[in-house]
Amino acid sequence: MWTKEDEAFMQHALDVAERGRGRVAPNPLVGCVLVKEGEIIAEGWHDHLGGLHAEQMAIHDAESKGNSPNGATAYVTLEPCNHYGRTPPCTEALLWSGVKHVIVAHPDPNPTVRGKGFQVLRDAGISVQSGLLEDQAAEQMKPFLYWCEHRRPIVTVKLAVDANGSVDDNSAESKRFTSEACLDEVHRLRMDCDAILVGAETVERDDPSLTVRRIKTERQPLRVILDPKERTNKNAKVYNDGGETIRIGREYNGLLPLLNRLGDIEKQRLLVEGGPATIHGFLSEGLVDEFYLVQSRVEHCEPVPSNIDSDILERSGLVLNHEEQWGEESVQVWMRKLSQ
Ligand code: AOF
Ligand code: ZN
After folding, report:
1. How far apart are CA 55 and CA 61, in angstroms?
2. Model confidence at 60, in pLDDT bands (50, 70, 90)?
3. Which residue owns the Cα nearest ligand 1 atom 10?
4. What phi and psi values does residue 309 have, to the nearest 5 degrees?
5. Active site includes 55?
6. Among residues 94, 115, 147, which one ends one of the domains?
7. What's the pLDDT at 19?
């Protein structure tokens, strides 16, 4: 039903959607291109929370270039919204613009939209098709889709180990053992998460900042400190640097209630950064959706074993998806099996 051209236009819409990464939560990444006579005449994306939706930006883009969207085909990565939220409905903007065809990658599961966007457009005589590059769109807006369904964040774990699977060196002061370029990637990952969680042990040993510093960002993730024995030092950086931190102390009643609590405040992606005890807690409950296992070539003198290996990741419902290179480190990316 779709041509190679259709796929290329939708791919372009997915690509421009990336420009909003790290800035639109709790909204999804969305991109849109307008096409006339086989040519892209305009593009738009949801750039930041409260900013224009992708379709509206694309229509403005067409008009500002003197291109009329009248008669064009819109390729949108998400079903156009039909509600007054932070912006007026995209369906209205599309109808006013004179767009004749709308091709969508993924329906919007948000109950205020679900199906109504399609319906309104069809009722107005616009031809609407959905499902083009749907899997790619689902991957791009995974935290949003997951949150719409489960009302809690997806859980991403990042763990750095030495050549022998050790997380730390007891013979030395706590220090970073991965490359600078690897750290840039970690900050990119943090930027894409709404909250970062560590246990009390990490705060006591490393006194980390858990902020995004190495790349420009307008938003810092919420820090979550798991500290059921309430033993973290109140002078720790995370409590005193002016950023947002919550400590889960004696009220801690398990990981699922904690995730639900984060879901209640619209956190859609949680990054768990350690250490081993905390990570094993999430793994044993089967609550990990993505696992970045960062492997360095250094060898610790007095190793602290992570006890993380392929067996335990597989038993926790994960499969090895692919490998990446972050600076000098190789990274195994494990993902939850689709059937679960
Ligand atoms: C679209 N195009 O670019 C986006 C959509 O509160 P608002 O007004 O920002 O609306 C947010 C909801 O709108 C969001 O939960 C999702 O259902 C949809 N996002 N829809 O037509 C867009 N970002
Ligand atoms: Zn919209």
Report:
1. 10
2. very high
3. 85
4. -145, 180
5. yes
6. 147
7. 97
- 184 and 331 assigned to the same domain: yes
Instruction: Give the pTM.
Output: 0.94
Q: Do 156 and 251 share a structural domain? A: yes
From 39, 40, 224, select the one nearest 31 (Cα to Cα): 40
Using one digit for the tens of pLDDT, what is the confidence trace for 284-328? 999 999 999 999 999 999 999 999 999 999 999 999 999 999 999
- Give the pLDDT score at 340: 43
Q: Which residues contact 284 (CB under 8 A, 6 or more apart)?
A: 316
Residue nearest to ligand 1 atom 20, measured at CA: 81
Whether 18 and 157 share a structural domain? no
| Total number of domains constituting the chain | 2
- Residue 89 CA to ligand 2 centre (angstroms): 5
The ligand minimizing its distance to the Cα of 110 is 1
Choosing from 27, 46, 55, 148 the residue with most ligand 1 atoms within 8 A of its CB, the one to mutate for a pocket test is 27
CATH number of residue 30's parent domain: 3.40.140.10
The answer on 71 and 141 residing in a single domain is yes
The residues near 242 (Cβ < 8 Å, ≥ 6 apart) are: none
Of 116, 147, 178, which marks where a domain is finished?
147
Lowest mean pLDDT, pick from 19-28, 163-172, 244-253, 274-283: 163-172
CATH of residue 299: 3.40.430.10
Instruction: Report pLDDT for 274.
Output: 80
Cα–chain-centroid distance for residue 268? 7
State which ligand 1 atom lies nearest to the alpha carbon of 54. Answer: 3
Whether residue 166 sits in one domain with residue 123: no
> Which amino acid is it at 275?
G
How much is the pLDDT for 176?
Answer: 80
Task: Say yes or no: 136 and 235 in one domain.
Answer: no
Q: Domain span at residue 142?
A: 4-147
Comparing C-alpha atoms, which of 138, 136, 75 is closest to residue 108? 138
